[in-house]
From TrEMBL:
It comes from Anopheles epiroticus. GO terms for molecular function: N-acetyltransferase activity. This is N-acetyltransferase domain-containing protein. It holds the Pfam family Acetyltransf_1. The lineage of its organism: Eukaryota, Metazoa, Ecdysozoa, Arthropoda, Hexapoda. Coiled coil: none annotated. Residues 107-170 form the N-acetyltransferase domain.
Amino acid sequence: MNGSFSKILYRIAVPSECDRIREALLAFYFPEELVTRSYLDESQPLIGPTEEHIQYVLSFVHQGMVALAIDEDLGTIVGVTVARCVKPGTADELLAMVPAASSRRWAETMRLFAHLELTGDVCGRLRSRRAYHVFVLAVEPHYRRRAIGQKLMEFQMARGKSLRFRVVSADFTCEVAARIGERLDMRCVCAMSLNQYRNHTGEHTFVATGPNHIVSTYARYV
């Protein structure tokens, strides 16, 4: 990028963009994403998402819950945020998908997602039958410090409201993202160190190194 900032467009993704979104996620989301890089399995030393994980994220494009930040001059995707509808039974739905997982990595990831849904309990805490839950928020490194992440969250809040959700929530996995939630008047309803999590058999399946090891769930009414 040069010294002059180009205009950023914020909009909902369409299904024909799935390949481009996949490239963006693999370029600047998954390499830094806490859960993906913290999975512990000596038999699978390579760090990266499974194909099932990628397809799971992309499935929300077809539901109109993926918002993009686009550099209008270059036409490139520089930010991605993905939401899903969560309900009191979402954890059970995630666990029901585990037996069909083709890899242990994806099975353990879904178990973790289910655990986060149970501990966050956004619907129960805010007494709502459903919530518009943001679980992916990523900005291309060269475009950071321009409030793109915050504008994407603002866009998703408006999107959730337009879809008649009363509550918007989000899982944040770094301090920078958590501060975005605070600036948007979201409140932290749950925070868990990934290093304290153990699966259903007591195994320590995720180990985070570095300062970012907390998964924080934030929520607010819209």
